[in-house]
Amino acid sequence: MTASRKWILAIVGLLAANVIAMVALAVAANNGSNQVIPDYYAKAAHYDDEMSRAATSQALGWHVAVSIAHGAIDVAVSDAAGKPIEGAEVRVAGYQRAHAGDAIDQALASGGGGHYRAASPARTGRYDLTASVTSGGARYTQHVVVEAR
Q1: Which one of 33, 79, 97, 149 has the largest count of C-beta atoms within 10 Å of its C-beta?
Q2: Which residues have CB under 8 Å from 62's CB, separation 6+?
Q3: Is there a single domain that holds both residue 120 and residue 60?
Q4: pLDDT over 80 at 33, yes or no
């Protein structure tokens, strides 16, 4: 085999390996679900509204702690003084980062002591969530990233 044939075979082999690698990556990356952040355009178009809600929430000084474990979403809500907020309407909406097309939006039931619960999504992993709390005519929202285990 001549040197020129060896070079041609090496180049053809590298091109073939590149094509095989790209096909394998395309198949692995496409799990059949939508990977675009839900309502991303609407969120961008209403950015000023979101900033207004964030300023209102910050002025309230409430605190929301969200956890996902043991088959449940648990949200603890407290006011600026650290006292639990009872009788609030609590809602959690968002998506898991790896499966953005499977959005969740759940109303949580009161569990007493400022804790609210609902059944958790089946998948483990990181979730980008927005917790909304309405109590006494005031509305508080907080964006959180939670690891579901």
Answers
A1: 79
A2: 77, 78, 79, 80, 85, 133, 140
A3: yes
A4: no
CA 24 to CA 16: how far, in whole Å?
A: 12
What is the DSSP-derived secondary structure letter of residue 36?
Answer: S
Q: Using an 8 Å Cβ cutoff, are 79 and 87 in contact? A: no
The rounded distance, in Å, linking the Cα atoms of 35 and 128 is 13
Full residue range of the structural domain in which residue 3 is found = 1-30
Mean pLDDT of 112-137: 90
Q: What are 62-104's pLDDT values in tens digits?
A: 999 999 988 889 999 999 999 999 999 999 999 888 877 778 8
Contacts of 121 (CB under 8 A, 6+ apart): 68, 96, 102, 104, 127, 148
13 and 83 housed in the same domain: no
- Please give the tally of structural domains in the chain: 2
Of 112, 113, 132, 131, whose CA–CA distance to 67 is shortest? 131
Residue with tokens 């799990």: 31
Report field, pTM of the whole predicted structure over 0.85: no
